[in-house]
Amino acid sequence: MLSDAALGRMLAESAADDRLGVPRTSRPETVVVDYSAPNAAKEAHVGHLRSTIIGDAIVRLKEWLGHTVIRQNHLGDWGTPFGMLIEHLLDIGEAEAARELSAGDLTAFYQAARRKFDADEEFRDRSRRRVVLLQGGDETTLRLWRMPVAASKRYFMAVYERLGVRLTAGDFAGESTYNDQLGAVVDELDAVGLLTVSDGAKCVFPEGFRNRAGDPLPLIVQKSDGGFGYPATDLATIGTAYAS
Question: Domain boundaries in the chain?
Fold first, then answer.
């Protein structure tokens, strides 16, 4: 047990040291911290807040030790939900959509689109076709897509500023970042013999990945309509991380 005098002396020594007695590492590394990763057009929830605080603690610790830290915020800003959101935006008109999004009520905007997607087959078909246009780089679709994404980023930055974390707008690296690599992912999977066509979709069937009935479960890399599934985006993201 430390005496009060010994504890006081140790505390005084640490307080007098700019580094609080923690030396810098002699072997600095580059560390990537991927945290938060909220979905655009939705509000942040407790899961995002938890990972944000834990991630920021890791960032501060690693930086204090002298490592180079790269913060990444893998924003969910791509895929089927955005076909749905864009079609809802067109239905209500750009001016009304801009007003709703600027008001910051992202959840209501998303929920309205989701209700139509679940109830209206024609709306579902339009939404799926819109995703293909989005992933194909159609300029009109990209312009409309930027509206909810920009509103979401403003909202998320306000949350991060209130939390006092070190995430910045420059740390966003959303799923859309990897769109131009998705075709190459499919080609590479095909080249190594992992790709299987199932009901018109290009899939990978990982060994041991089965449903409750014991049937193989696919990772849908490219859908029958030409749109890419989330596994393609995830594989492109992982490949970029390993390459760097």
Answer: 179-234
